[in-house]
Design goal:
The structure holds two protein chains of two kinds.
Chain A (H helix, E strand, L loop, with lengths): L6 H21 L14 H28 L2 H33 L8 H13 L2 H6 L4 H28 L18 H43 L17
Chain B lengths: L1 H18 L3 H19 L6 H23 L1 H5 L2 H7 L5 H29 L9 H27 L4 H12 L1 H11 L14 H20 L7
Classes of the chains: A mainly alpha, B mainly alpha.
Chain lengths: 243, 224
């Protein structure tokens, strides 16, 4: 299984997109009339949140593929997508907190549906790795993790609807049906930043897949050379360890 | 399928009636939690959204106890193996267990909700009883469906009593939101306020989505 193909082009593309996005953020997009410079954290925070949520849902889609085909590579894809989304989600909560502190004066605002639903989703996915870790049999680990990923993936949109219904309207609706009230420069910057973040996610995902599958293949080569006795026993891990 | 489901339900209810493993524990837990809330909040009576929150958080935590034990006998006494060897539809186990958990919750609430009214609730919810019953039943259905799925997921892990609440509680947040928003006006001081029926729709939607989802993926938790 080769996961490394096309990685160089992808890395260059995401580096370029991120650079352009930051250049636009600092030199092109206007300062927000109300919030001033701090509003520019929006170009990191919102794309990161959108990409993380899409990553969670993608983890669910690969989990469906794994359950249908039994292919271990799909389990690995699902695991890595959720893993990287979790890392991004920590970033979303941190940047969101900083922004909330700067614009509303509090580190955390409870009557804020988008923030709260994101926290709930994060808490749910934070159990993904403990769940995998506490199942020893690799077959069952993959299958149970897939069931979790599917249920949690479906939970993401439902949770956002429920929390938003109990809402106030503090949070800016950037992607509302009216398209928000963003002027053109801001929207362009936002779209480039979103594309950059999405590209970065795919690149990181592919790197992690390549690295994980390389170490799994290395291990199986070592086993062929030295036999089962010559290998250090596997540590129990949340990550898939067989392909 | 129907015969299998009813056989499984009868087995579980008989087991519970003879051994009293889950329902009394859930009930004791609920009443103790009401007492804890009385001292923790330092109030002798509650009304409105505070009362709804206390009731629903307590019922949810009591339900987690039931989820933890739901599949324990299957795992420890070989029930899973026996079931897998029988020539029956595997989904029957999910349907039966969800109905059993639903029955357990109803049984707990038959005592816990009156206890809550006597111990903590300030207004008399008598005239809002039909609405309260609708909220309770719809929320129980959601908790039963999700609880059965997570109970089956957790019982095969090494850290069962940790994994089940950790996964189930975030998943059930929408139920708590909808149920407490719907029952808060029923508990309003000075008579029930207008009942927000849209929360019943949310609960029904949640039940339907997770019911179908759990029905679809449950089989994968059984394959050996």
């Amino acid at each position: 299984m080769t996961f490394g193909r096309g990685l160089r082009a992808l890395s260059i593309a995401s580096a370029a997109l991120i650079t352009v996005a930051f250049a636009l953020v600092f030199f092109y997009a206007p300062n927000d009339a109300d919030q001033g410079f701090i509003q520019k954290i929006f170009y990191v925070h919102v794309p990161m949140a959108i990409v993380a949520l899409c990553g969670f849902v993608a983890g669910g889609v690969f989990a469906i593929k794994h359950l249908r085909s039994g292919d271990r590579a799909d389990d690995l894809r699902s695991y890595v997508a959720i893993h990287i989304s979790l890392v991004l989600a920590v970033g979303v909560l941190l940047t969101g907190s900083i922004w909330a502190r700067a614009s509303w004066g509090h580190w955390w605002v409870w009557d804020e549906p988008t923030l709260v639903s994101f926290l709930i989703v994060f808490l749910l996915y934070a159990c993904y790795q403990p769940l995998r870790f506490s199942i020893e049999d690799p077959e069952r680990q993959a299958r149970y993790a897939a069931v979790f990923a599917i249920v949690a993936g479906a939970f993401v949109p439902l949770n956002f609807t429920a929390v938003r219904m109990a809402e106030s309207l503090t949070h800016p609706r950037v992607l509302s049906t009216t398209g928000g009230a963003m002027p053109g420069e801001m929207r362009l910057t936002f779209i480039v930043a979103l594309a950059g973040m999405a590209c970065l996610f795919v690149t990181l995902w592919r790197y992690e897949l390549a690295s994980k599958s390389a170490s799994i293949q290395l291990r199986s080569l070592k086993r062929r050379l030295a036999g089962d006795d010559g290998l250090a026993p596997l540590n129990r891990s949340a990550a898939p360890q067989h392909l | 399928m129907r015969a299998t489901v009813s056989a499984l339900i009868r087995k579980d209810l008989r087991l519970e009636l003879r051994a009293f493993e889950s329902v009394p524990a859930m009930l004791m837990f609920s009443v103790s939690t009401f007492v804890l809330f009385h001292f923790g909040l330092d109030r002798s009576s509650l009304a409105g959204d505070l009362a709804a929150g206390v009731l629903w958080v307590t019922l949810l935590l009591a339900a987690v106890l039931g989820m933890n034990r739901l599949f324990l006998a299957e795992r420890e006494q070989g029930g899973f193996d026996g079931f897998l060897m029988a020539p029956v539809d595997r989904t029957a186990l999910f349907v039966a267990k969800a109905i059993v958990l639903f029955c357990f919750l109803v049984a707990v609430e038959l005592v816990a909700v009156p206890a809550f009214v006597i111990l903590l609730l300030e207004p008399d919810p008598g005239q809002a009883l039909p609405e309260l019953l609708a909220v309770l039943l719809l929320a129980d259905a959601g908790i039963a469906v999700v609880g059965t799925l997570i109970g089956a997921l957790g019982v095969q892990t090494r850290a069962r009593d940790l994994i089940v609440p950790l996964i189930a509680l975030p998943l059930l947040v929408p139920v708590v939101i909808a149920a407490s928003e719907a029952s808060a006006p029923l508990f309003a001081a000075g008579g029930a306020d207008a009942f927000p029926a849209r929360w019943l729709v949310v609960l029904a939607l949640y039940d339907a989505v997770f019911g179908l989802l759990a029905y679809a993926v449950f089989d994968f938790l059984l394959e050996e």
